[in-house]
Amino acid sequence: xxxxxxxxxxxxxxxxxxxxxxxxxPPADPTGPSASPAGLPGPYAxxxxxxxxxxxxxxxxxxGTDAVDVLHYGLDLSWSPTKRTLTGTATLHIRPVRDAAAVxxxxxxxxxxxxxxxxxxxxxxxxxxKLVVDTPVKAAVPVTLVVRYHxxxxxxxxxxxxxxxxxxxxxxxxEGGIWTMQEPFGAFTWYPANDHPSxxxxxxxxxxxxxxxxxxxxxxxxxQQGNTFRYRSTVPxxxxxxxxxxxxxxxxxxxxxxxxxxxxWYRSGDAKHLPVLKKTPQMLDWMERKFGPxxxxxxxxxxxxxPSAMETQQLTTLGSGMAERGERSFHLNTxxxxxxxxxxxxVTLTDWRDMWLNEGWALYxxxxxxxxxxxxxxxxxxxxxxxxxGVYRKQYGPPGDPKPAEFGATNVYTCGAAMLRQLHQxxxxxxxxxxxxxxxxxxxxxxxxxxxxxxxxxxxxxxxFTPLIDAWLDSxxxxxxxxxxPAGQ
Length: 489
Hints:
Binding site for Zn(2+): 336, 340, 359
CATH architecture of the largest domain: Sandwich
Strand content: 25-35%
Strand order of the largest sheet: 5-4-8-2-1-11-14-13
Organism: Micromonospora krabiensis
Distance between the termini: 35 Å
Subcellular location: Cytoplasm
Number of strands: 22
Radius of gyration: 22 Å
CATH class of the largest domain: Mainly Beta
Structural class: alpha+beta
Family: Belongs to the peptidase M1 family.
Number of domains: 2
Shape: globular
Protein name: Aminopeptidase N
């Protein structure tokens, strides 16, 4: 994500083809004996890759639930620019985690046009950003929930004190288009969701728009029928990493490393930013050489009316306001969001205490790229890194202890990146990039934690880096500088 971290960046710088069929229909008997190795019966086995272990977030317990695991979302959406109205049918394939008298999900108060569970009508109510469907469910017995709804989108509050913040979720622009950014939550402003990164799911999204408009969403493009645009995610996606945009867009395409299809969506006024976007193949190639293959079937970016940016999976969401800050800044910020496709998207945090795990990696990758492409020296990187670490650690505290009211504070970016720089210095290039590449490629499409990262570092390197990691994540002051490991360690 790029909101507040732009301040740190500026300071440092100063130094599948065609349309596919719809998902399988819900099973007539979801309790039947035929089960997949993942324990999912009948057709639900098709969404086994979406199985997760949801948790209650320690920072934002009001969002998400550990009671259900959504395996798959089928979203059929229609946007009317003249009426400013979103109409949707959301089909959720859900694995209940425990017995419950109702299913509760995050959702804004749209008007409900109908709710069914396994084809039978059910009573649903939406209040206080929660959808409650009064139907009993049993642990490990999957159900299919269908919610039909319509209404005018509204955003939700952003829990931060940063000066560049704007409300989260689906935003309507002056021309009647829509776009969304939703970290740490906000997907529920356009579809019913278990809106927490620990519950990743598969997605099929269809967006119907008026003639001359484009419907854009995260996932791999799988075709267009008339005015309906379709996208599919066959690997799990966290809800905050989904995206939706509708507008009078133009489309440009390219090919990335190993033939990866790349799509750029832009409006007429955004054409001046295309030269940077068209560097995407080179950016991806640079990162593949460092961190292993790009982890998805497609890539690209959509430009929206925002001063910020977001690492939405397979299709980054870039604010045109951010692009106005200069070509070098836009180039580096775009690289940062692409870095998240490895660090944050392919390997996702389990809860929001570990935002440093996403942002520290993405910022450090950005600084390595800045060294390689823009001549940032080691001395400049070290000096700025330590100076900024001290400033932000004093202002916001250590990155391992983020505050709920200060989401995305600069310490999780800069202090996390400083810790990785220290690891890099200790290990040297060869062992560090083996570590970074292995962390992604050996943990693809999983949710990870501080504990699992520390364990992986220690196992991969054969050295106990727990004290170093703990110091950088927990100390109220910048830890002392250390050098390379002694030979043989």
